């Protein structure tokens, strides 16, 4: 089940939720969607007593994540047209199609955009987060595109169809780019150096729990306090699970920053982690009008500390 991932952004920090819905999901999704999630959760072998109240803490199907299917809820990500080999300039384009095969042209805006496109090679390298343009007469999304390297890429379209009861979807396809390449081996990494910035990640991830993560942005040994809003937040995080590239797309929480607001050097996150294992984290942040992307690799510990409220509701707490 891929509809299971619930993202909720709220309060002082950013909540990265792999899997289970929890109380604050109501802040960002319609009740009807939450009701359906709960229903699905029950259908997945989560026994709830007859007439049991919906309890957010009981809905913790943490092994359910987004970004693993090209079709969901009646929507399909079409074939992706793109240059066939690295180094060939061209265009990348696709459509989202509905039940009847008609292209979707009406979207609900999330985080300043109608659709977020994430592309990453299967080894976690070559990450890009871009915003293509919609031709609303044809439903075609397109963006100028050139592959820097060969390989097998995962493309994720993250969007919400217009309509009161539509929920956010992350559909994915694989695209092969001709040529030789050497896969990158990942290793745990908490510090990245990008464009003169040093970005560091503090905190631990643990399967079956929500963990606090803090990212700190420095430049020339000084804390950066001029983080600017980007996509409606001070930080924008994508997390992928190594092994299946299950996807999570989140934005910094708190009150929506206004134009001219700045923040930093810290950005707070909370990560709800479905399993132990390795996670690839990509942070987009903006300073002086420029967007930069920092990358981290974090190994989640096994979930010995699964909370009592959650322990009865799923069987896999991370081995
Ligand atoms: Cu985006």
Keywords, separated by commas or semicolons:
mainly beta, 2 domains, Immunoglobulin-like, single chain, disordered N terminus, binds copper (II) ion, 319 residues, disordered C terminus
Walkthrough of the structure:
With 319 residues, this protein is mainly beta. The chain has two domains: 66-183, Macroglobulin (MG2) domain (Immunoglobulin-like, Sandwich), CATH 2.60.40.1930; 191-300, Domain of unknown function DUF4426 (Immunoglobulin-like), CATH 2.60.40. Helix content is 5%, strand content 39%. The chain contains two helices and 21 strands. The strands form four sheets. Strands 1, 12, 13, 14, 15 and 19 form a six-stranded mixed sheet that branches. Strand 10 and strand 11 (169-177) form a beta hairpin. The radius of gyration is 19 Å and the shape is globular. It starts with 13 loop residues before the first strand and ends in an 8-residue tail after the last helix. Residues 1-63 and 306-319 have low confidence and may be disordered. Copper (II) ion (CU) binds next to loops.
Structure at a glance:
Helices cover 5% and strands 39% of the residues. It is mainly beta and 319 residues long. It has two domains: 66-183, Sandwich (Immunoglobulin-like); 191-300, Sandwich (Immunoglobulin-like).
Topology:
Elements: E1 14-17, H1 31-43, E2 71-72, E3 75-77, E4 90-97, E5 107-108, E6 115-121, E7 128-130, E8 133-135, E9 140-145, E10 151-161, E11 169-177, E12 191-194, E13 197-202, E14 210-219, E15 222-223, E16 227-228, E17 236-241, E18 246-251, E19 266-272, E20 277-287, E21 290-300, H2 308-311
Parallel strand pairs: 1-19
Antiparallel strand pairs: 2-3, 3-4, 4-9, 5-10, 6-7, 6-10, 8-9, 10-11, 12-13, 13-14, 14-15, 14-19, 16-20, 17-18, 17-20, 20-21
The structure holds copper (II) ion (CU).
Copper (II) ion binds next to loops.
């Amino acid at each position: 089940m891929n509809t299971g991932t619930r993202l909720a952004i709220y309060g002082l920090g950013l909540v990265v939720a792999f899997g289970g819905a929890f109380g604050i999901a109501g802040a960002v999704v319609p009740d009807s969607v939450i009701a359906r999630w709960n229903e699905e959760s029950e259908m997945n072998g989560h026994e709830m007593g007859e007439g049991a109240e919906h309890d957010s803490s009981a809905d913790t199907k943490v092994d359910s994540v987004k970004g693993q299917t090209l079709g969901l809820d009646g929507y399909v990500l079409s074939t992706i047209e793109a240059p066939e080999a690295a180094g060939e300039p061209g265009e990348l384009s696709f459509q989202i199609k509905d039940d009847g095969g008609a292209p979707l042209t009406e979207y609900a805006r999330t985080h300043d955009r109608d659709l977020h496109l994430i592309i990453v090679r299967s080894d976690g390298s070559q990450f890009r987060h871009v915003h293509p343009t919609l031709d609303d007469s044809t439903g075609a999304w397109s963006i100028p595109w050139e592959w820097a390297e060969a390989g097998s890429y995962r493309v994720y379209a993250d969007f919400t169809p217009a309509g009161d009861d539509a929920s956010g979807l992350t559909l994915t396809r694989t695209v092969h780019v001709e040529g030789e390449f050497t896969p990158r081996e990942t290793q745990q990494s908490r510090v990245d150096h990008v464009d003169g910035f040093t970005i560091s990640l503090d905190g631990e991830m643990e399967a079956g729990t929500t963990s606090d993560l803090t990212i700190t942005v420095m430049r020339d040994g000084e804390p950066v306090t001029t983080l600017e809003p980007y996509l409606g937040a001070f930080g924008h995080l994508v997390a992928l699970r190594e092994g299946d590239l299950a996807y999570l797309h989140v934005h910094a929480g708190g009150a929506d920053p206004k134009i001219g607001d700045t923040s930093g050097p810290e950005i707070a996150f909370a990560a709800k982690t479905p399993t132990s294992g390795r996670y690839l984290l990509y942070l987009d942040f903006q300073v002086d009008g420029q967007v930069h992307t920092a990358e981290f690799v974090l190994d989640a510990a096994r979930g010995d500390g699964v909370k009592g409220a959650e322990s009865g509701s799923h069987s896999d707490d991370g081995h």
